[in-house]
Amino acid sequence: PIALLADWPLTTPEAFTARAGWNGTSGWVQTRIAALSNGSIKFDNIAINGTLSAQNPSLLNWEGHGLSFNSSEVIEDIAGRLEAGTSGLDLMIQSCNGQLGDDAFALTEPTLVSIDAEKATYILSSMNFQSKRGSVELSGAFNATRDWDLHARITHDGLQWGDSMRRINKIDGILTLSPGLNFQQIEGTLRCEEARWNEFVAVDAEVTIAGMLRAPRLKLRAAALPSGTLDAIVDLPLDDLAAGRASVAFTDLDLAPVNGLLPPESVELQGKVSGALNTLGLNAFPRLAGELVPNGVTLAIPYLGTRYDVEGSVEIRPDGFYMDQWALLD
pTM of the full predicted structure? Predict the structure, then answer.
């Protein structure tokens, strides 16, 4: 298995020590590794121990605690066994559990990874995770540092962050990871029945993902409630959100959800708006540019008991909002 291990695209941030003993026919080995990493993927607290034999299969038990992507932990604990005999190598993943959003998932049954020790390759035919509300099926193969892939088929009732006003319902799709020429690549499509952020609701959404794993491009198309459509392109550098970009085009978006973000009894907006927005920076201080065109918009001020019809357009620049040919009609 030395060729197999040496050819894996993994690095360690610090040195580690392995201890072993051998008496001519049998022996033992044990080691503990603080972390293994491959790009933005990191595997922490790995322990390996087992027995070696020249006559019987050698058994290595292994476990890890904490598999993270871009510093966000996805898998909490994973454990298994590597068996090396005269017929080859068998890698068994016996248990695995983790957390995604508010949902905990676990491996449904032990999974066998087929390994060709002579060619230093492996094949994962199916690895199934189940939670209370959905499932993820993984499959893939590793042939060389520049020749591997991992597929994930996702079916889920939905994920929620915090309260029920931030959630994604009815998710399904397929994602594929591959090495690319210089950086790990991701591609695939995800669909969801409904996505909610506070008062904003999108339905029948479809997201296509392509590009580098650490900086993918997302293309979104969705309908909005109570009315309107959204089309967006997002360049998402996960390790530098300030360099991210987004372009959003929208048609006949109903302004009713905006009222939920305004102070109570201040103003009320009704009507629809179309336009486009470009964003430079996806952190707390984005630079915005674009245009808004109202359609049948009214502005009510309850304190004054007045209501205005709004006409005109709004140009959005990084330094402010510019109103052209605006009229407020009482």
Answer: 0.74
